[in-house]
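Duplicate of earlier report; UDP-N-acetylmuramoyl-tripeptide--D-alanyl-D-alanine ligase input re-posted below.
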Amino acid sequence: MTLWRADDAARATGGRATGDWQADGVSIDSRSLQAGDLFVALKVARDGHDFVAQALANGAAAALVSRIPDGLDDNAPLLIVDDVQAALEDLGRAARARSDARVVAVTGSVGKTSTKEMLHVVLGAQGRTHSAEASYNNQWGVPLTLARMPADTEFAVIEIGMNHPGEIAPLSRMARPHVALITTVAAAHLEAFESIVGIAHEKAAIFDGLEPEGTCIFNADIDADALRAVTDAAQVTGGPVVRFGAREDCDYRLASVQLTADATVIKADLPSGPQIVKLSAPGRHFAANALGVLAVAEALGVDATLAARDLSNWQPPAGRGTREVIVLDPVDDHSITLIDDAFNANPTSIKAALEVLAAAMPEDSVGRVSKGRRIAILGDMLELGPDEIALHQALAQLPQIEALDTVHCVGPRMQSLWEALPEAKRGRVVASAEELAEQAHRVIDAGDVVLVKGSKGSRVSLVVDALRRIGRAAGQQMERR
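Output:
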């Protein structure tokens, strides 16, 4: 399906098209570009203009540029504009304007991407649904997602994130959602805000872009002052205001959550009646996200029972609580269970991840250590501001710590947690993820359940990679026998 024709794109951006090209997609990365894409030469980490020739050689239909790169043929298909970022935003607005899609915007301190993926599963069962790749939720990710939206889309799910004040409102106005959802407000990016109330005001700015009579949906299980800020912002819109959570006064109330080793069973009271939801992944935080999804579904006119059924098909995105078995010895079928939650971390998400680990069941009497263990490998939580050391130390007081056997700590901030832990819980403490990755084979044993969690900048995903390599090496050794 043609997404953009040269004349349509030129009209949307006020630019000048060379050639009569048509594009089937939009890309900002020449390495992952598909033949037929419009390549957008953004200046992010590097200047995209340096890769235009490569993109065209790889099959790009055209390139969106602010200048003609050196070495191009005179007949190279281009869309020439004054500013590439502004033109991408114009494409996003134009794509949104030409579509009759019902649009949902999602933000929150944690759970944005998981909730976006849940919504994609639920709404995808009801009609043609478009959503962002990965965590494309910033100043270029949101317009890129919109610019990629086919005109015949029926539902769109737009994830909106932030690092600093003032980021969310313009992105919400660009998306013009019919429903706006806040998954939660918690201590994340505190170094850019004076308090959690400041974060609440920024998250509530997602309501600024709502279409007339649009619905505000938010988690009410948050700090009281933050809840007041979000509620006030929602009421100003004049549209429906929906609260979800465990509080008695919630419109969508979480009646109970049962965690098993590999599932979450949710009982919820909805305005339309009680519902039971079974998620194929453990996590109390996933339960809250699922309840918000049910609220969105009903706001869009989707039957809650169908939505609850389809939620069972959802799986966590990579790096956000995915579980996998890593075989250490193919002959004896010895293995560990890895919980990969290495994409991001703050105090709220670490508490949720430790609860999942505490509910997991290790296997005894299969390894060198007779008792299977619950092991946490925790990397630094970043962007927490002046109280970051105290926030790391406070993790030692979480009740879930009692159920763990060993906690390995990665990074200078997590060292403060290691020092606050009971001595019996202390594992290794290292300055960098590279160090622990080198020691990965020494900190695990058959039967263990291992959680790896940390902010992306802590690079604890390197430990995940090291654990996976142990499994691959075991498989290769088996093949050689």
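The two ends are 50 Å apart (CA to CA).

Merging into the original ticket.
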